[in-house]
Amino acid sequence: MSKSENKLYGDVHERPVPAKVTVPSIRSRKNGAPLLCLTAYDYPTARLVDEAGFDLILVGDSMANVVLGHASTLKISLDQIISATRAVKRGADRPLVVADMPFGTFHVSPEDTTINALRLIREGGAQAVKLEGGESRAHLIQKLVQADIPVMAHVGLLPQSVHSKGGYLIQGKTLSSAQQVLRDALAVEKAGAFAVVIEGVPSEVASVVTQSLSIPTIGIGAGQGCDGQILVFHDVVGLSTGPAPKFVRRYANLADVIRKALGELVHDIQQGQFPKESEAYALTENLPSHWADDVIEEQSAPESSSSLDRSSP
Ligand code: KIV
Q: Which ligand 1 atom minimizes the distance to the CA of 132?
């Protein structure tokens, strides 16, 4: 008897499941084909990002700006990132899903940091976490890696340091600053990070950092010399508001597409052109002309005293 004759039902998973990107497979892309990375914060976006062939989805704390309308990334909570990560995981079959550690979740103690990172993995379903900071955060990265939590590091411009730095300032423009970026990158590599985001540094500096590391670098505003690139989804498709930084390339203007669509819907409703008969439901039997009168009469008839007077014995 052939194997298939033994089966009562067909295979449950007929759809080919693509090979999942893993932490080791990201690591192995050093000096290989450029790593394709993008942010996503919900299910439909994650599906589209996956379909487009991206390797890694970051559920970034940039969600605070582009989804929740905050002026900085500082206000997003761990619970909000966990909830977004769950949705992204449902939409992302192939890409590695990395969850950002929000401001305040790795600032109290190494124990607290581990507990918070574990929540991103266990409750959110993330396969790795990202945290901002170089040398000064290396001990935390080491602790997480020891707890089997893969870490993507983040050096250069750190949006969570907006207050301590006095703004979103490009890093590595001077000798001492460039050397600090390199020191930070080497420290996070030594601590066990499997990749590092380099944000807002001159291309020359990012290239030298990339050549000095054995883990992949993923650039954002860091030029061409990195092992991969990452951008914020809403910036790329034209859904973010306000002026975009110069490193952003906008590939669509979805805000205009949505404005036009909503304007047409408003017009159609106001003009009585929506909904049409084909967009409504039909009866399955003819109703007599008085069908509504009967119900209305029934409802307006005075109720009998016995049903109203509940207090009577
Ligand atoms: O939160 C974020 O989106 C990020 C990236 C853009 C690197 O940290």
A: 8
